[in-house]
């Protein structure tokens, strides 16, 4: 159980780092205008995704919510929710 907790903390740290990186345009410029995306889940990471300023380019959670950040090719994408009756029941 302790190992799972540490893994969770590590993943949350990665999400926080990515959140800071895509909010800073310098990172994108240093990547020489390559496409950049971050993948978020619907646990704690949703609140970070939701705070990002950007144009929502996909608003269906079954396909994966997506935002385009700024004018560059930077995207924040939520993991799609599977079409599963048990998941729909718990929302």
Written overview of the protein:
The protein is α+β, with helices and mostly antiparallel strands and 91 residues long. It has one domain (2-89). It contains 4 helices and 4 strands, in the order ααβαβββα. It has helices at residues 2-22, 25-30, 45-51, 85-89; strands at 36-40, 55-58, 66-69, 74-78. A 4-stranded mixed β-sheet has the order 1-4-3-2. The longest helix is centred in the N-terminal third of the chain and has 21 residues, at 2-22. The two termini are 25 Å apart. The model has no long low-confidence stretch (mean pLDDT 75).
Largest sheet: 4 strands, mixed
Radius of gyration: 15 Å
- The secondary structure category is alpha+beta
Strands of the biggest beta sheet: in what spatial order?
1-4-3-2
* Secondary structure: number of strands: 4
Nearest-integer average pLDDT = 75
Distance between the termini: 25 Å
Strand proportion:
15-25%
Helix content bin: 40-55%
Domain tally: 1
Shape: globular
Q: What is the H/E string?
A: HHEHEEEH
Helical run tally: 4
- Uncertain runs are none
In short:
The chain has 91 residues and is an alpha+beta fold. It is 43% helix and 20% strand.
């Amino acid at each position: 159980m302790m190992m799972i907790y540490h893994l969770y903390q590590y993943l949350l740290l990665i999400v926080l780092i990515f959140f800071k990186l895509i909010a800073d345009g310098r990172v994108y410029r240093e990547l020489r205008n390559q496409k950049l995306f971050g993948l978020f889940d619907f646990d704690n990471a949703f609140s970070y995704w939701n705070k990002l300023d950007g144009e929502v380019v996909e608003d269906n959670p079954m396909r994966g919510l997506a935002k385009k950040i700024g004018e560059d090719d930077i995207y924040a994408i939520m993991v799609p929710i599977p079409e599963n009756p048990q998941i729909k029941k718990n929302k």
